[in-house]
Amino acid sequence: MKKFLALFLALILASVSLLSFAGCQPNEEGEGESNFKVGAIYINSKNDTAGYTFAHHNGITTAMKQLGLNPDTQLFIVDEVPEDKEQVLAAIDTLVGNGVNIIFGISFGYIDAMEEAAGKYPDVIFSHATGYKSNETNFNNYFGRAYQARYLAGIAAGLKSLETGNNNVGYVAAYATEYAETASGINGFALGVQAVNPDAVLYVKSLSAWADEVNEKAYANELIASFNCGIISQHCDSAQPQIAAEAANVFGCGYNSDMTADAPKAHLTAAIWHWDVYYKTAMQAAMDCEKAADFVTKMGGQAYYGGLKEEFVDVSPLNSTCAANTDKAIAAVRELIVSGEWDVFSGVKLSISADGTVTKSDAALVDNKGNEIVAAGGASVADGVITGTMNYFVKGITWVNDPNGSTTPDTDPDTSADASEEVSE
Amino acid sequence: MDKIGVLTQFVYNIVLLNIPLLYGTVGEIMVEKSGCLNLGVEGTMAVGAIFGYIFGCYANSLGVGIFSAFLMGALCGLIFAVLTVSLQANQNITGLTLSTFGLGIYFFVGHSLKAKAWPVMNDYAGVSEGFQGIQIPLLSKIPIIGKGLFSHNILVYLGIVIALAVWWYLNRTTLGLRLRAVGENPAAADSVGINVKRMKYLHICIGCGIMGIGGYYMGLNMSGSFNSSCWINGYGWIAVALVIFANWNPALAILGTFVFGFFNALPVSASSLAMAFPKGLGWLAAIPSQLYDALPFIITAIVLIATSIRNKRGSSGLPAALGLNYFREER
Q1: Is the pTM of this model over 0.90?
Q2: Same domain as A239, residue A346
Q3: What is the largest CA-CA distance in chain B?
Q4: Inside any domain, residue B304
Q5: How many domains does chain B have?
Q6: B329 falls within a domain
Q7: What is the ipTM of this complex?
Q8: Are A17 and B104 inside 8 Å of each other by CB?
């Protein structure tokens, strides 16, 4: 009897814990304004209040409200889906079973599952963030020119570094040059910093993981304490680097969402995404489609790549911690980018003075090993390079995980002003 | 680069990032000394973490947080004790279930609260100021190890004190002796009038309570920012292995924590060590980070091999009745 009771209790325990894991049931069905149903697969929880998944969830719900759709009844979510093909396919099956018209997958690793499912379910539209695969009918990918927003955030960081007199800028990155997504973001930020402060040196410490909260904080602290960094930027999901900056009385630039609330005394501005811009466009197109196969044609191509001009990426409202004239300088550069007059990875360099005036000059874009990427005065590198093949860091960046792999080993953070010229040798 | 500063920061990280291991290990030693193998350390720490953090913030008091973390950890211990001591359930299975259960509770409470009103640590001065580093007079002025060892928050010191107290309790008190007797041979202990059930219940609950405080530490160290990944992050599992490394000796657990801590903190400090000492330690930067991630577990395997060799020589602190349920009627 006792053993039976023990088994029974263990069963209850196990089932309760299983239940509590299953926080991923789609929202209940109800009456909507139309029959259009949206499906979404998230890497983290839909209840997050900051970070990558939060930004997407916010974008999807905002877009739905703008289109008169009800997120409570017309949005179906499977969240906390790891980048595992079987599990993504299972999530897609669940959503298709719910009768959704379009499925958004927000993480890079969903790519193969979404490609397979697009063939399996031709009546459903598939839209994949950050990837590169697509077909001519019901499967596209979407991403944004985050490097443009990074450049603007870099300007804020550069002006702050002039104000504090500390030329060392730290950057906690998920990955370094392994992914064009991280490399282009880091490069864009570095060029923004250097446009203001040519002596600035960027120290990048990479996690080799998209999310690792414990180390995100520890790495930020290491950059502050050992590399003497006065500004911490980041390409990772949590606000831990900004929280670390706040605790150490230095400054920082967040990513994905406005992190001012997490670090009110440290945060300058964050490179953010207005995912609702894309989601609204995509949902509108999907609703206008007679059949799912028309979607890619309706979107005008297999890949959507919006930037500052589309207001797809931006910087968050400047915090009061920003140096004087930050708003002026950022507005001027934004104008150059939006008008199409200038772009970040080109042979034309911007110089921004402390009073916020911007001047253009021809200068070659050089990587941190001294190789010329774009000749002085040359046009911007192709989009395919920025999204796919950018596997180098520009001059002035030290990847501290493997400094020998990217720059001269003896760069001394304490005398970075002198060292920055040698970095490219 | 400031070489002294880099070394100081490295020592500081070894302590700061790894104290949860000490709490987990010491708690597990106490549980195992009663003859019960509780594999639910990870879940127990998670439960202690989430409730300690929430109650601590609502009461705006670090003390309340520590107490609630202990209490909720002890409650997990109570579940374990009811199942394994009274109901004779398999200890391994129950422990694993408790891990899953604890993590489930952690995410369940965290997510549902996050959707409504998550307490932000900085808003609660009683907690955030209580967690600030405390400079120990004189000792904290020593170069390198001064800041590295003697400028930490109160929970670091509390962990060391608990470890030493548990060592004293196990080896220098009558109750501790009785507990060890229960772990070695419950039938013999029973025959001389020790209440085996009561001893097991008491120590499982206290041990699990200690683990809960370790979880709370981790929550505070992450500044209470709840973001989908668990604060405990595998510390509970390493703690189970650390018990063997420490040979069931809470004082040795302090050493074990720092040895494991060394390898845990290495990926954080590797790049600065390599830059500060390019000639001697430059090679650190060439090690891929994935290898660093695997290091604590490789070390665990090595430790287990070394321990089993040592055990053959007969100096093990392993309680003889560990993992075996005691059923009085079968005596």
Answers
A1: no
A2: yes
A3: 69
A4: yes
A5: 1
A6: no
A7: 0.88
A8: yes
